[in-house]
Structure formats: structure tokens, C-alpha cells
Amino acid sequence: MRIVIPDVKKLVYESIIAIRWGDMDAMGHVNNGSYFRYLETVRIDWMYSIGATPSPEGQGPVIVNAFCNFYKQLEYPGNVIAKMYVSDPGRTTFESWCTLSRVDDPNVVYAEGGATTIWVDFPSQKAVAMPEWMRTVVS
Fold it and tell me: Kindly report the CA angle at 45 between 39 and 50, in degrees rounded to 5?
């Protein structure tokens, strides 16, 4: 099943990630699991940049699902441009999306993925309404 990234979304963060030799598999291209690491890296870097860091005693973001569509093989050496977008804020959730391109081939999307994020109260382990400051960021 292919999930399509929506046309209406908000660019919130961009990062360059180095492709490491160890990211490759026996076929000589970046292993599928590494793509998820790239998606995770840009998502976590963005969350830290806006102060949305989880606290075991408080509240914060939790990923409840994630996906990746693979279009073209990434290979070492190189650098990936990861662009992060958000959309569809709800009371407790929002969607995040990411495109992965190469720095030397920026107009070609090699992969794209996304995740649903839910805001939780960690001590009670229950979803709670996103704080207004976070809703403003993702709206």
C-alpha cells in the first residue's frame, strides 16, 4: 500500500544527513531501515528545535505509526536533504511528512514518509490535548 503525502502541508524543518558507509546493505545501496533512521533523525531534530522534548514526568510527543515509500535507491557516498512538513492538527494528534532527496540531486525525491504523532501525558500514559504553543507550530 502506498500512502500519498498531501499537497496541503507546512514546511517546518530541513536538515542535511550524511549517508554513512554502514547504512548500505549487501546490494550496495542504503538499507531500507536506514531510511527510517533518516526520517526519525529529522523528526527528532525538529522536535528538539521547537522545545517539544518528552519528559517522563510530563507530557510530550509519541509516534503511533510510521511509513516510508521508496522511489529510488540512495547510495554512498552522499548527503541527504530531509525536508519535514506537518499537517492535519487534531485535538491530540498531527501528521508529519518528510521527503528525502540527495544534495547533488535535490529535485528528485528518493523516498518520502510520514508519521502520526500523538501528544501524551507520560505518567498516566494517556492522550491529552496538545498545548496551544504546539498547536500553533503545527497549524
Answer: 130
- Asked, as a colleague might, if the bond just before 89 is cis with ω within 30 of 0, I would say no
Mean pLDDT of 15-35: 95
> Which of 36-45, 49-58, 103-112 is the least confident region?
49-58
Question: In order of start, what are the domains of the chain with their CATH numbers?
Answer: 10-138 (3.10.129.10)
CA atoms within 13 A on the CB side of 33: 4
Strands 59-70 and 10-18: unpaired
pTM of the model: 0.92
- Evaluate whether 80 touches 38 at the Cβ level (below 8 Å): yes
Q: What is the mean pLDDT of residues 56-63?
A: 94
99 residue type, one letter:
T
Residue with cell 523516498: 111
Q: How many Å apart are CA 44 and CA 33, to the nearest integer?
A: 16
Which tens digits make up the pLDDT trace of 2-19? 788 888 999 999 999 999
Q: Supply 36's cell numbers.
A: 527510517
